[in-house]
Specification:
Length: about 575
């Protein structure tokens, strides 16, 4: 299994700036509101300092009351400005996340099928659910907090320097330790959180594949092996999370212990300044209040920094989906006809071992070809090459003289359709599920397609084509779902059909009835069937026998029976 790529820091930075650039006016307004709220909040400590100086100077109650009313007005103004700024920020965040989700879905649907299969279900599922959700939290909550806290800290320390430069320098006493531990944390956090995300994806893939293959695991007595495999994946997740927890266990205590240093330094320097007459007691009080007030945004900034690292790691994984080269679109001339041809095709998977060895095969238009052979002979791999899902390592597969993999994907799927044992019932009505294959199909055409594949269960649905299917509604059995997939195939109307054991989920009588119905409907089309039931081969025009990645026999059923070779042995074994 080969995982999907992860975007680098430069790509993440460009994408983040792109999200901001699309709403630059809104972002500017949000920043202005936050700056205004922070500036309004700065007036209160300064006014407290003025009150202290005036009390020391013997001012009357009237003057003090006026200043107190001004403080109340500043607090109220800050609250209103901050409230509206947060509201605008959340609206911006929701829009940005919605765009990100739409872009992720678009990029995911553009992924080549072979890439998705090599990556595994766990990696893509984790990115689409966990990582996109984490990025959403970051955009909606982390980014506004970081922006607000940064603006508040800048203005707070600026206000202290305006009171007196010595007090400003004293307020920076805790900065060296915070900067050093933050730099230490950031250098280690990004790879640690990326490793945690990868380990979580591996665990998800293990749990998903084990659940899907539960019957196989039980039949082959692989329970112990799968449990051990799962424990190893859990151990990796635990190790990566322990690593990130260890980083936080160092980072947060050091930061929190640095909060008291600025206040202590301001009071110490302020006391010395009072003795020499450099500062007034009101300035010292205001500076101490500013330093105390700075601990709030600083705490928020550093606490959310951890979530920001998670968000950046998740954003890199989400953007990585878009770095997979899409399937080539266009570039090949229109095929001259529907004839499929394989010439010297060799193919190997990621481990480098060839599973197909110099396949030569020509499928005549309108022919029914059955491909038979033992498990692992390469039948399904050949079907994937014929459908253009995989590209041969050497040799070529053509349709009408054009390489199959060079055709535009939409054009290729209009001409060649591959139906496997895997199928999916989408959440929605039966009509919605059929419309995926042919959006313009009428109700009458949909009903005809269901009848054509022997889907007798359709007549029993309470609401006909409007019957809701999927989780929480009517759930179809494996056999019914496979017939639904075949009905989609009829509606898609390609000139070449590749059926990779497409009726495997049906019982023998239903499968036979479905195959006969398809045979009647698909007259004039090319049909290539990966046959596990040899009655399919008996009805075919020709039969190709595959063994160890090679075609060893090719001919009609009767010719191969008379030859007395591998097919004859399979036929005799099939009939006992």
């Amino acid at each position: 299994m080969t995982g999907l790529p992860v975007a680098d820091l430069a790509a993440v930075r460009r994408a983040a700036l792109g999200l901001i650039a699309r709403d630059r006016r809104t972002v500017a307004a949000i920043l202005a509101l936050h700056v205004a709220a922070t500036a309004t909040g700065l007036a209160a400590p300064w006014l407290v300092g003025v009150i202290v100086d005036r009390v020391v100077a013997g001012a009357g109650a009237g003057a003090i009351d006026g200043l107190a009313m001004a403080i109340a007005g500043c607090v109220l103004g800050q609250a209103l400005l901050a409230r509206y700024a947060q509201y605008a920020g959340h609206r911006f965040g929701e829009r940005a996340v919605a765009r990100l989700r739409e872009e992720f879905v678009r990029r995911t649907l553009a992924l080549p099928v072979a890439v998705v299969e090599r990556a595994g279900t766990g990696d893509l599922a984790t990115r689409s659910a966990v990582d996109v959700g984490t990025v959403g939290i970051t955009v909606r909550q982390v980014v506004p907090v970081v922006v607000i806290a940064t603006a508040q800290l800048t203005l707070l320390f600026g206000a202290i320097f305006l009171l007196h430069p010595l007090l400003g320098l004293a307020a920076l006493a805790g900065l060296p330790s915070i900067l050093l531990v933050t730099r230490w944390y950031l250098r280690r956090a990004s790879p640690a959180y990326l490793a945690e995300g990868a380990a979580t994806a591996e665990l998800t893939d293990t749990l998903t594949t084990t659940a899907e293959g539960a019957r196989t695991v039980e039949a082959l007595r692989l329970t112990g092996a799968r449990v051990a495999h799962g424990r190893e994946r859990i151990r990796r997740v635990w190790a990566t999370r322990r690593r990130t927890l260890g980083l936080r266990s160092v980072f947060f205590p050091v930061v929190e212990s640095s909060y008291a240093l600025p206040i202590a330094a301001v009071l110490l320097v302020g006391g010395l300044g009072l003795d020499s007459g450099l500062v007034s007691i009101g300035e010292v009080v205001a500076a101490a209040l500013y330093a105390q007030q700075a601990s709030g945004p600083l705490d928020q900034l550093l606490i959310w920094l951890e979530q920001a690292q998670r968000g950046l790691a998740s954003f890199a994984r989400v953007l990585g989906v878009g770095q997979v080269p899409p399937e080539p679109r266009g570039g090949a001339s229109a095929p001259a006809g529907p004839q499929l041809a394989v010439c010297g095709a060799r193919f190997g998977y990621a481990d480098g071992r060839d599973v197909l060895h110099g396949i030569d095969l020509t499928v005549r238009p309108g022919e029914r070809l059955a491909i038979v052979g033992p498990s692992g002979a390469g039948k399904s791999t050949l079907a994937r090459l014929l459908a253009g899902i995989d590209r041969p390592r050497s040799g070529e597969v053509t349709v009408g003289g054009c390489p199959v993999t060079d055709l535009d994907p939409a054009e290729r799927r209009r001409r060649i359709a591959l139906v496997t044992q895997e199928h999916h019932v989408f959440l929605g009505s039966l009509r919605d599920n059929l419309a995926f294959a042919a959006p313009e199909a009428t109700d009458a055409q949909m009903r005809s397609a269901l009848v054509a594949v022997g889907a007798d269960w359709y007549a029993e649905l309470p609401d006909g084509l409007d019957t809701a299917l999927g989780d929480g509604a009517r759930e179809l059995s494996a056999a019914d779902a496979q017939q639904l997939a075949l009905a989609r195939l009829v509606l898609a109307d390609p000139h070449t059909l590749i059926l990779d054991e497409a009726t495997a989920a049906l019982d023998p009588s239903t499968a036979r009835r479905t195959e006969r119905a398809l045979a009647a409907v698909l007259t004039g089309r090319t049909v290539i069937a990966i046959a596990h039931r040899l009655n399919t081969a008996h009805d075919a025009d020709r039969v190709a026998v595959m063994e160890e990645g090679r075609i060893t026999e090719l001919g009609s059923h009767d010719e191969l029976i008379r030859a007395g070779g591998a097919y004859a042995a399979l036929w005799c074994s099939w009939h006992g």
